[in-house]
Amino acid sequence: MHILISGGSGFLGRAFSDEIMARYRERKKALQVTWLTRDSNQAHPDDIAMMTYDELTKTDKRFDVIINLAGAGIADSRWSDSRKEQLMASRIRPTEALLAFIARSRSKPKLLISGSAIGWYGTQGDKPLTESSGFETDFAHKLCDDWEQFALKATEHGVPVAIVRTGVVIHPDGGMLAKLLTPFKMGVGGQLGDGKQIMSWISRADWVGAVIFIIEQHLADYNNSQTTNDNSLKTTNDTPAMVYNLTAPTPVTNHAFTKTVGTWLHRPTFFTLPEFLLKLIFGEMSTLLVDGQKVLPQALLAAGYEFRHPTLMQALEVK
Question: Boundaries of each Cbl-PTB domain copy (predicted)?
């Protein structure tokens, strides 16, 4: 099997690459992973192949699965108009490049997995949200929805699509948690706003495990993949498209998250950042911090995926 990954060197792509290659080595099965990059000199593991976007326009290589993860971090800086344009372009342009490759390929991939986020649902408080739920319109929804709609164009070329709407990914080595560790270790960690907002999270190991599960389940059922279920997406053709919420089955309030991290680090969590201050500091982006979403992984659970880290403490204690 040959897998092409945009964003392969990132927090999720690298962990996915390591895990799936380890699994295939253990099974003594052939696997090639290629990272799609704009920098031909980018450092990478010896067992990972590299391909630039320019090379993608010319290659006749066949990829069984394409994973589309490229995109600037939505919480990395304040949402100015120029930043919003950057966030959109960093997702749409790589997706367009992959679609152009798919369109001209004589041997089509068997599956495109394309990234998205639970921001697609918009701000809906503590209302339980599954793959069949609707949305509230805001910038996060538009960003995710535009990205998803571009990816779904792959079905026009007969390529099935799986959209993965990811929650807050937890691992001590990176992501949001790494940014929080310093203040928590200094004893100045605390809840955000009133702490009642729901945080839908997933351990990085379960994110990786879920994506591998989706790939293997789809490839095993490839000839019978025309079925419709609760996580099917509407397209203009008969090629299947699915959506999966990549979140743990146990979302927590920000207050519970704060207390759990404090317990894990053996540090106090007395401080609170009031909502008005968060809005003053982060502007529109503060919605990511003060407005909760209770997003549940109904499709994964129904398909039989078993979470390695169903509780937040289990995710924090990963070595």
Answer: 1-135
